[in-house]
Amino acid sequence: MVFDVNYAEPQQLHGLYNYVKNMQKAAKGRVVVLTRGPELRAFAKENYLEYQDIVDRMAGLAKEGVEFRMCSNAMKAAGFQAEDMHGFVTVAEAGGFPELVYWMGKGYQVINQSVNPAPLPVRDARYLDQPQLRK
Predict the structure, then answer these.
(1) Residue 120 has what pLDDT?
(2) Rounded distance, CA 69 to CA 117, Å?
(3) What is the reported pTM?
(4) Alpha-carbon distance 5 to 105, whole Å?
(5) C-alpha to C-alpha distance for 62 and 77, rounded to whole angstroms
(6) What does the alpha-carbon distance between residue 79 and residue 105 come to, in Å, rounded to a whole number?
(7) Alpha carbons 80 and 53: distance in angstroms, whole number
(8) Residue-level pLDDT at 70
């Protein structure tokens, strides 16, 4: 299964953690999390102290075999580069939607974890937590 994630706030990732843990129990197999909304700023190294509890929980899932992917387009629009992210996150260079199509083509079930009907804007999301970095 692949969790398609697009949350307004990083704190909503706590709920994702619970969804993933429950699904791991119910359905055996590989789990992928694709993050492509403003929540992606939680995975930036520069924000670790602010989102430490979330990042540590997600890193724990990664150690259990959950694969974390991030939309490159959303990441760049938010003001980040791949090297800004924690090492357990892989950047999906083709973007979020091609990434979903890829996993669907491999037979993965998409679980939509977006709480919004349309994708949330990520433009400059980096500066919500780090306004001093704005150039």
Answers:
(1) 59
(2) 21
(3) 0.82
(4) 19
(5) 25
(6) 30
(7) 21
(8) 97
Looking at the chain, how many residues does it have?
135
Q: Residue 44 and residue 24: Cα distance in Å, rounded? A: 26
pLDDT tens, N- to C-terminus, the chain (135 residues): 999 999 989 999 998 998 899 888 777 788 999 999 999 999 999 999 999 999 999 999 999 999 999 999 999 999 999 999 999 999 999 888 999 999 999 999 888 866 544 555 777 888 888 888 887
- Provide the Cα torsion 93, 23, 65, 115; round to 10°: 30
- Beta-bridged to residue 90, according to DSSP, are 69
42-47 — which CB contacts under 8 Å span 24+ positions? Answer: 42/10, 42/13, 43/68, 43/70, 43/85, 43/86, 43/89, 44/80, 44/84, 44/85, 44/86, 44/126, 44/129, 45/84, 45/85, 45/86, 46/84, 46/129, 46/130, 46/133, 47/10, 47/129, 47/130
Angstrom distances, CA of residue 134 to CA of 10, 49, 80: 20, 20, 11
pLDDT of residue 77: 93
Contacts of residue 74, defined as CB under 8 A and 6 or more positions apart, other chains included, come to: 35, 36, 37, 40, 96, 122
